[in-house]
Amino acid sequence: MSKLEVNEKVIRTLAGLLDETDLTEIEYEADGHRIRLVRGGTVVQAIAPAAPVVSSAAIAAPADGGVPVNAITSPMVGTAYLAAEPGAPDFVKVGDQVKEGQTLLILEAMKVMNPLPSPKSGVVKQILVSDGDPIEFGEPLMVIE
């Protein structure tokens, strides 16, 4: 098989088709090479294992800089938005009781707004990000107990 030479024009054209058609995935094959573009995708929750909380000090990040106990972490790289639109009330606040599936915040990735549902019912103990913050994959977003 020959070395793949990426044709930027083809990739930009395919990305434009994704936007125009509201598709989430497109695949192109030529000369034995395949290019697959995917946007959005399924939101997957990554949750730290549950552990008993003895005091509020246990909510803070561990000394090793790891993920706080009961933290909801980001399933993708993007931008965090705490409300549906500017000026709207936040989806949740510290002290709120949330239900499994309730929207906690929105993660924007590649111009797609992805609601982040709560993986469990509980009380919001900490919100670890601010509106408009850039977010990395696996970054702790909030603590729910």
From TrEMBL:
The keyword Lipid biosynthesis applies. Signal peptide: none annotated. Keywords: Biotin, Fatty acid biosynthesis, Fatty acid metabolism, Lipid biosynthesis, Lipid metabolism. This is Biotin carboxyl carrier protein of acetyl-CoA carboxylase. InterPro entries: AcCoA_biotinCC, Biotin_BS, Biotin_Carboxyl_Carrier/Decarb, Biotin_lipoyl, Single_hybrid_motif. It comes from Kiloniella antarctica. This protein is a component of the acetyl coenzyme A carboxylase complex; first, biotin carboxylase catalyzes the carboxylation of the carrier protein and then the transcarboxylase transfers the carboxyl group to form malonyl-CoA. Pathway: Lipid metabolism; fatty acid biosynthesis. It comes from the Bacteria. Residues 69-145 form the Lipoyl-binding domain. The keyword Kinase does not apply.
